[in-house]
Write a structure and sequence with these properties.
The protein has 244 residues and is α+β, with helices and mostly antiparallel strands. It is built from nine helices and seven strands, in the order αβαβααααβαββαββα. Strands 4-3-5 form a three-stranded antiparallel sheet. A hairpin with a 2-residue loop joins β6 and β7. The chain is globular. The chain starts with 15 loop residues before the first helix and ends with a helix. The N terminus is likely disordered.
Length: 244
């Protein structure tokens, strides 16, 4: 998947930022995950249907390996099913594997992309961002409605509409220079879209449920007393590392 996330050059980029982001996640049970305030869920990792931390940690480890080494979804599924069957679970289906793999990997790479796009040099040279949907039969109408829209890189729209904007979302964001915007006759929008007609259907133009935050901008500084122990411990360890 790495070739899908090139920033400006055509060279393959290994996103160290994507790796760092995913390493910062903490495996928690689904029950604990949904007790976490929505804006902080990007810092936790869970898989629906599994409650044992050992199993969740295996999912996490295999996904981290995929980001670091470029493993495919097929390899991910084979490794997970081998592990799950040894533990007495049914294996995951192709759909489950693709959903878990694509959503987590896409999120990590898009966070890495965001970190690179917001570097001062890139922001100076390419101050506009354009939403890029795949636009095939699998593309959600609300995501298709965002395709091609251009906003300034610092517009608050990206706090809501920075992809992925749903499970298995394949959307991305491309950077544009001022010259490219002028040459292509693109309109710089300043307001978020609300609703409209897409392919003959009336659509509320919103991200999917629970995908209306930007995971790259999450700062975990809440009152820790009501949060799962594992998440509190990870946060405390991360703060210690910052102080070194």
């Amino acid at each position: 998947m790495k070739e899908l996330f090139n920033l400006i050059t055509d060279k393959e980029i290994k996103f160290e930022e994507a790796i760092d982001y995913f390493k910062g996640k903490v495996p928690v049970t689904p029950q604990a995950f949904y007790k976490i305030a929505k804006e902080y869920r990007a810092l936790a990792f869970t898989v629906s249907g599994y409650t044992k931390i050992q199993v969740l940690k295996k999912f996490y480890d295999e996904l981290l390996k995929a980001i670091e080494d470029g493993t495919t979804v097929r390899e991910f599924k084979e490794k997970m099913n081998e592990f799950l069957e040894k533990k007495g679970y049914e294996g995951i289906t192709n759909f489950q594997a693709d959903n878990i793999f694509r959503t987590n990997i896409q999120t990590a790479y898009n966070v890495g992309h965001y970190q690179q796009m917001t570097s001062p040099e890139v922001m100076r040279l390419r101050p506009y961002w354009q939403y890029d949907a795949v636009n095939d039969r699998k593309t959600r109408l609300s995501h298709r409605a965002m395709d091609g829209r251009v906003y300034r890189a610092d517009d608050p729209i990206w706090d809501i509409w920075y992809p992925p904007n749903g499970y298995r979302c394949r959307c991305g964001v491309r950077t544009l220079s001022e010259r490219q915007v002028k040459e292509r006759g693109l309109k710089i929008e300043t307001e978020p879209p609300v609703a409209g007609e897409v392919d003959g259907y009336f659509v509320n133009i919103l991200p999917d449920k629970n995908f209306d935050t930007n995971p790259a901008k999450v700062e975990f500084n809440p009152d820790l007393k009501d949060y799962p122990k594992s998440l509190k411990k990870a946060f405390e360890n991360r703060e210690k590392q910052k102080d070194k």
